[in-house]
Design a protein that fits this description.
The chain is an alpha+beta fold. It has 8 helices and 5 strands. The chain is 43% helix and 13% strand. The protein is globular and about 55 Å long.
């Protein structure tokens, strides 16, 4: 098994949260020297000019990040006129954060059932979300909340102007999944 590939996949999956050296050792069942060797090998492969990402050591964690020398292209992506409309997934992330702020990316992921790392980065770059400190959870992940630009975008004076969500569902409206509306015709 290619352990460098496994490490690369781990770094991709953890996204913005990053992963500690200790966690790498535990997940991959390797010692600290082997983990350092794999990180060094992967880092060297990312240092080539034909690569767009690199490994960064930030906040006691290793993370995949973009290369600073490509920043102008990433800014064009974020500021692209076509991308100024919010996609359904962007609206979903905004709604989850607006109603549950401050909230970590992992908590948003759990509610959505899919990774929200890219969408949160995009919404932060658009100015609709911002980091609001660190959680007390292990690893001290970032907390996110909406901004005043979010309020302006949706025409709200305060976050309290968000519409209320009724979480109590009427039990009489349950749908029976196993009952067919079609009746068997008797065979003649």
């Amino acid at each position: 098994m290619n352990l460098v590939g496994v490490l690369e996949g781990i770094l991709f999956v953890v996204g913005d949260e990053g992963v500690t050296l200790k966690s790498i050792c535990e997940i991959m069942d390797i010692d600290i020297n082997k983990a350092k060797e794999l990180l060094k090998e992967l880092k060297q492969s990312y240092e080539k000019d034909d690569r767009g990402i690199r490994i960064s050591y930030l906040g006691d964690c290793f993370k995949l990040t973009t290369k600073k020398e490509h920043k102008e292209y990433y800014q064009k992506l974020v500021n692209n006129g076509e991308s100024n409309l919010l996609s359904p997934s962007a609206l979903e992330v905004l709604a989850i954060i607006a109603y549950n702020q401050p909230i970590t990316r992992a908590e948003v992921d759990e509610l959505r059932g899919v990774s929200s790392a890219f969408m949160i980065r995009k919404l932060v770059a658009k100015g609709l979300l911002k980091e609001a400190g660190k959680s007390t959870l292990p690893g001290r992940p970032n907390l996110y909340k909406t901004t005043s630009e979010f309020l302006d975008y949706f025409g709200l004076a305060t976050i309290n102007d968000l519409p209320e969500i009724n979480m109590n569902q009427d039990e009489n409206n349950e749908t029976e999944l196993f009952t067919s509306i079609y009746k068997d015709e008797p065979n003649d």
